[in-house]
Amino acid sequence: MKHKSGFVNIIGSPNVGKSTLMNKLVGEKLSIITSKKQTTRHRIQGIVNSDNYQIIFSDTPGIIKPGYKLHENMMSFVTQAISDADILIFMTDIYETPSKHAELIERLSKFEIPVFVLVNKIDQSENEKLIEIIDLWHKALPKAEILPLSALHNMSVDFIMPRLIELLPESPAYFSKEDLSDRSMRFFVSEIIREKILLIYKKEVPYSCEVVVQEYKEEEKIIRIRTNIMVSRDSQKAIIIGHKGEKAKQLGIDARKDIEAFVGKQIYLELFVKVDKDWRNKEEKLKKYGY
Ligand code: GDP
Ligand code: MG
Domains of the chain, with CATH numbers? Predict the structure, then answer.
């Protein structure tokens, strides 16, 4: 078997059981960054390794973050969760129906990547009612795989991993199987900055830019990090920088705080905004070669 690797993103309303499932899936196989508790806040939940595969599970804190415009925010985080996922898991429970997620369903139905709908908490459902709900989900998302389960009581949870492995793309591992390498630290740093961009700027701006960590240099007392924020237009650059540089300054402060907490060390963070109208194409290419 060729090596497989990919990102599995889990989305869904609060309290449907995402964390419970994640704990079961990554369980003992968990090769997580235990000394870095903040990881959870930055979406990566756990990495499951074997000789032949590596699955990176993440969830979507935007959905559960209180105090933001919930709906708008959920959709933008979902867009992000989807844009870098190889497989998407949408988790729901027997108390929710598709009608609650009309807009999301519309988006999901256009996706090319495999979508799972996990209908959780079947331990609390009557058979007939369950069949009805499952039927509604089949109608709402005909291409998705619908799986009723109970994460808490381990009902049907065992079906998930083998199916995920089957569907994973062939790819070398994204992260060192032993520990965190420089390369993965760069990834986490760019994720943190990306999260801050999502929180600070509105609407399309976050999706029109990409964070590229140019330098990650660990010195005795400090880590020097230089990053480019790539945008495709001058107008976007102006938005990122903001009036008298206020916005970029805010971004730098917020990002530095979280990165320092994450790496447990003082950092020196440089952020540059670069305009390159062709970056998206180039990026696709780079990704293909596993930059
Ligand atoms: P999240 O907000 O989506 O991450 O949901 P959690 O994993 O935190 O679960 C929310 C609540 O639902 C917790 O009290 C869980 O114990 C409970 N829960 C999760 N899975 C199940 C299940 O299969 N059956 C039942 N009855 N409760 C569950
Ligand atoms: Mg949770």
Answer: 4-167 (3.40.50.300), 185-288 (3.30.300.20)
